[in-house]
Amino acid sequence: MMIGNLVLDFYIPHANSLKSKRMVVRSVKEKLKSKFNVSVAEVGNQDLWQNAQIAVVLVAPDKKQVEKSLQSIVKFIESNYPDLHINIYKEII
């Protein structure tokens, strides 16, 4: 059994309040949960208007499947949210 972890640091340039930031974060979280069946949580920068940090975790039987799933998630984020600046940190345990 392998565990995959992504930490996504978002910069949301068009967010001008916590409410607008949370709308973007909620959208990202719900889309990832429904499309990839992963666990998603906002883990940092909750009080900053234009920054967010989201963690995505998944479990799979082997490393190859974890890498494939994480890569699919990264491609999905990059193609669906091109206006956001994202730093991605990946770890497989």
- The CATH architecture name reads 2-Layer Sandwich
What's the domain count? 1
Widest sheet, order of strands: 2-3-1-4
- The CATH topology is given as Alpha-Beta Plaits
- Outline type: elongated
Cα Rg: 13 Å
Q: How would you name the CATH homologous superfamily? A: TT1725-like
Q: Which spans have pLDDT < 50 for at least 5 consecutive residues?
A: none
Overall average pLDDT: 92
Instruction: Supply the helix-strand structural class.
Output: alpha+beta
Strand content: 35-45%
CATH class wording: Alpha Beta
- Continuous helix count: 2
- Helical percentage: 25-40%
What string, H for helix and E for strand, traces the elements in order?
EHEEHE
Instruction: Report the span from N to C terminus.
Output: 9 Å
Number of strands: 4
Describe this structure in words.
With 93 residues, the chain is an alpha+beta fold. The chain has two helices and four strands, in the order E-H-E-E-H-E. Strands 2-3-1-4 form a four-stranded antiparallel beta sheet, with helices on one face. The N and C termini lie close together (9 Å).
Task: Briefly say what this structure is.
With 93 residues, the chain is α+β, with helices and mostly antiparallel strands. Helix content is 40%, strand content 37%.
